[in-house]
What does this fold into?
Amino acid sequence: MNPTVAATGACTSQNPGNCDFTNKSTPVNVTIIASQQPSGDPTVTSFSPDHLLANSTDQTLTLTGTNFQQGGAIFVGQDQAAWVTTWISSTQASAVVTGDWLTTTGQLTFVGYVNPTPAATGACTAQNAGNCDWAHRSNMVTVPKN
It folds into this structure.
């Protein structure tokens, strides 16, 4: 919208008399797309089973919590190794713990859940660690191996 020839100031909503409504531009439709806001960092509240069997074959570990996004991963260790994960819901995910992680008694430390980054081009995995949003991972729990 342009000001009128006789305008004494800017054409604004506070000064509509300064606006030339006759010679206005052609209206244009503008689409506004709201960006998806993260629902918060994931949180682990429990896991099952309550321990894994040491010196055994592959076992399934299930984490329960909040804000698990599809495409995320269960991870373990300070090096944040992301396991192949089955997303069940926003509150549950599972992963197979392979026998090579179970060769001794003790604990699996620093186990948690990491969501994919907003720009992820695929699932968060050990092979695609760049798809993992490590800055917003869950709290970490310790899983006993007996």
